TrEMBL record:
SUPFAM superfamilies in UniProt: CoA-dependent acyltransferases, Peripheral subunit-binding domain of 2-oxo acid dehydrogenase complex, Single hybrid motif
Function statement: E2 component of the 2-oxoglutarate dehydrogenase (OGDH) complex which catalyzes the second step in the conversion of 2-oxoglutarate to succinyl-CoA and CO(2).
Record Pfam families: 2-oxoacid_dh, Biotin_lipoyl, E3_binding
Source lineage: Bacteria, Pseudomonadati, Pseudomonadota, Alphaproteobacteria, Rhodobacterales
Organism: Maritimibacter alkaliphilus HTCC2654
Protein name: Dihydrolipoyllysine-residue succinyltransferase component of 2-oxoglutarate dehydrogenase complex
Metabolic or biological pathway: Amino-acid degradation; L-lysine degradation via saccharopine pathway; glutaryl-CoA from L-lysine: step 6/6
Keyword Nucleus carried by entry: no
Known partners and oligomeric status: Forms a 24-polypeptide structural core with octahedral symmetry. Part of the 2-oxoglutarate dehydrogenase (OGDH) complex composed of E1 (2-oxoglutarate dehydrogenase), E2 (dihydrolipoamide succinyltransferase) and E3 (dihydrolipoamide dehydrogenase); the complex contains multiple copies of the three enzymatic components (E1, E2 and E3).
Molecular function GO terms recorded: dihydrolipoyllysine-residue succinyltransferase activity
Biased composition range(s): Basic and acidic residues: 80-99, 197-217, 227-246
Peripheral subunit-binding (PSBD) domain boundaries: 213-250
Similarity comment: family membership: Belongs to the 2-oxoacid dehydrogenase family.
Database matches in InterPro entries: 2-oxoacid_dehydrogenase, 2-oxoacid_DH_actylTfrase, Biotin_lipoyl, CAT-like_dom_sf, E3-bd_dom_sf, PSBD, Single_hybrid_motif, SucB
EC supergroup of this enzyme: transferase
Amino acid sequence: MSTEVRVPTLGESVTEATVATWFKKPGDAVQADEMLCELETDKVTVEVPAPAAGTLGDIVANEGDTVGVDALLATIEEGEGAKPAKSEKKDAPKDEPKSEAPASGGGDSVDIMVPALGESVSEATVSTWFKKVGDTVAADEMLCELETDKVSVEVPAPSAGTITEILADEGETVAAGAKLGVISASGDAPAPAPKSEAPKGDEAKSSSGKDVEDAPSAKKMMAEAGLKSDDVKGTGRDGRVMKEDVQAAISASKSAASSPAPASAPRAPVSADDEAREERVKMTRLRQTIARRLKEAQNTAAMLTTYNEVDMTEVMALRNEYKDLFFKKHGIKLGFMSFFVKACAHALKEVPEVNAEIDGTDVIYKNYVHMGVAVGTPTGLVVPVVRDADQMSFHGIEAKINELGKRARDGKLSMAEMQGGSFTISNGGVYGSLMSSPILNPPQSGILGMHKIQDRPMVVNGEIKIRPMMYLALSYDHRIVDGKGAVTFLVRVKEALEDPRRLLMDL
C-alpha cells in the first residue's frame, strides 16, 4: 500500500508552484513529517513534509517542474525496505493513472475542487463556468470563476482531459474544499452528465421561455413551497431560477396574503412596456458586501466631514523635477499618491485618534500606519492595505501601490491584503470628482478624500495667481475624533503638501 505526497495549499490566488529541491530520492527511508521537498511560488517557499513513514517510491514531479495545488508529487511505500515504485512493474498499471490524475475521484478521473478561499472565508458563489460538460481542457486552463464577498477566485483545470461532470451550477454556494466537477484524464467523455438531463416541462423553462435548468437548491425549495418554475422570475443566466428568486417569490406571496394593498411597494410601478425593456441583474457578493458595509458605517459611526484645499504647486514642481531620475533609479513612475501617503502618515502621528478605532468601551490607538488605498475595479471598490506605510520610502510606497492596484484589477487580491488597515485614502479625482464626502471604512475612524486638480485664481501675497488647487475631505468618526483634531489633521496634510520639505524635516 502506498501513500500519496501532494502539493499543499499555497495561499489565496496562488494556484501553482515550482519544485525547487528534493531532499530525498527514491528508495530513501523517511519518517512522518520529515521534509521531502521544497516548492517555490512567486511569494513564498513551501516545505512539503512526509504524510507517513516508509520508503520514498516514485517521484512524479522533478526539480524545476511546475505543479498545481493538490498535484501528485511522489508516493511513499510501506516499510523501510520497500523498493521505489518505478521498479515494481506489477504496480505500474495501478500507479500510472495516479501520476496523471491528482485529486483523483477514482480510476482516471480527476476531481475539480474549490481552492483555499482565504482566512475566515468558508464559502463562495459559482459565478461563471467557462467550460461545459464534454469540453476538452488543458492542464491549468481556467474552468470557472468563484466569487466571495471580497475577491474573485479562478479555478484552473488540475489535469488535461474532458469534463464529465459539473456538480455546482452557476449561482450555487459552495464551501471551501467542495467538489465542483470531474475531469476524465483519459479524455474519454461519457454520456452527457446528469445536468444535461434537463428537467422536463415547467421545471426546464425559465420566465424568458428558454430551456434552462434551474438551480438544484431552487428546485428543492419550489417543491417544498408548492411553486412551479413559471411562478418565479429567474434572475440567473438565461433566466435560470436561483434559490434567492424562490425566497423572494415566497416572501412576496406572504406579503400579499397579509397585506393585499400595501402602502408602499419595493419599487415604483412601471408599465409592461417599460418592464420589457429593463434588465434585472443579481448583485455580486462583492457589491452586496460593499452596500452592507457602507450602510453599517452610516448607521454605526457618528460620521462628519471637514474640508480644506491644497495648493499643489510645490508637489507638482518637485515631481516634474525628479520624475525622470526617480524612474531611472527605481524603475517606477513617481506619482502623487506617495506624497499623500507620506503627508497622512506624518499627520497621524500628531493626531493619533484619527488612526484609532473603537472596540466596545475601549479606544485602540495604533502605533503603526497601515494605509488603505481605495482602488476601483470592474466589480466594485476594494481597499488593499500598504502595511507600515510610515516606515516606507517614496519608491517603496509607489511600488506597493502599483502592485496592489494591478492585483486588485485582476481580481487576485487575497483577503489578508485587504484586512488590518488603520486609515484610508480614496482618490475620486481620477474619475473627475471635484468634491465629495467619503464614507468611513469600518472600523477605521478616518478617511481622506482626494479630488481633481483644477487651475483656479488664488490670492497669493496680495496678487491674483492661477494655481493648481485640490479640495481635500476628511470624513471622521465624531465619537472618537473631535472637530479640533479633524481640522488639525487636515491642516497638517495641507502644510506638508504645500511645502514637501516639511516631510524631510519632520515638521
